């Protein structure tokens, strides 16, 4: 049986409800070293469906898959090494894996080229940061001009373009995500398995400007606003959560459009987007209560396309593999 037949037959078995047989088939094909079966098994082990989640084992299966020349497996292995999924975070190991992949993969080679333009420490953290500008004291809003380079912004846009779907919000009653007219953009979330090494370095830079640890940040979210699309006044906090979104970081990824300003409705502060600029603002008061003054809106785009990256920072470490249940 070929690799394609093994994966195809396993998917058919899953569709028919025969999960044990599907898992056994992929396990057998993976044990025989079939690349696509190895890749499928690794994805299952990461997602926790249809097998239980097992990140350390997923790392081992990915390593075997990479040895067959599987390019997608190589990029996921880099992401897991950087983010510390299934093993401790190891920037240098992730960088070595990426350079190895770049020998045969033009996409990986472009990521290496982008990283060489960044000034980074041995941990992937930034050597320096732009001088911030205080825009508002209550709520505290700071702008970091040119936090990202145009090339870094383009990398985020290109990496997520095929993932964009109608954006969702969190239902305050159930905690579940849902499409809602308050938010009319398209969005994508960069899962830990898709986090390129360049995006990981950017997330570490975001942690640095927010004076937090990288592990406190949710996965980077990317939004695209077409003319007329907007995000009406809202708070980024989550009602009833035990690990609140204490800070928000917004990074403006492009220019060449009109409208789309970020407006804080309680104070009237309006931030005009400039490519690569970031704003960092607090969502809570010093005692941890939600700060109603942090209500903000993404005003309607009137011409062109606006692209924005958002990272919500939690009070404590956030596990993207096991997000809180409603």
Kindly describe this structure.
The protein is of the alpha+beta class and 326 residues long. It folds into two domains: 3-116, Tetratricopeptide repeat domain (Serine Threonine Protein Phosphatase 5, Tetratricopeptide repeat); 133-314, q2cbj1_9rhob like domain (Jelly Rolls, Sandwich), CATH 2.60.120.620. It is built from nine helices and 16 strands. The protein has helices at 3-15, 19-31, 35-47, 55-66, 71-83, 91-102, 106-116, 150-160, 197-209; strands at residues 133-137, 140-144, 165-166, 169-170, 177-178, 186-189, 221-225, 231-234, 245-252, 258-259, 262-264, 269-271, 278-282, 296-298, 301-303, 306-314. The strands form four sheets. An eight-stranded antiparallel beta sheet has the order 1-2-13-9-16-7-6-3, covered by helices on one side. A four-stranded antiparallel beta sheet has the order 8-14-11-12, with no helix packed on it. A hairpin with a 2-residue loop joins strand 1 and strand 2. The longest helix has 13 residues, at 3-15. The mean pLDDT is 93. Residues 210-315 form the Fe2OG dioxygenase domain. Keywords: Dioxygenase, Endoplasmic reticulum, Glycoprotein, Iron, Metal-binding, Oxidoreductase, Vitamin C. Pfam families: 2OG-FeII_Oxy_3. Its cofactor is L-ascorbate. It comes from Sphingomonas glacialis.
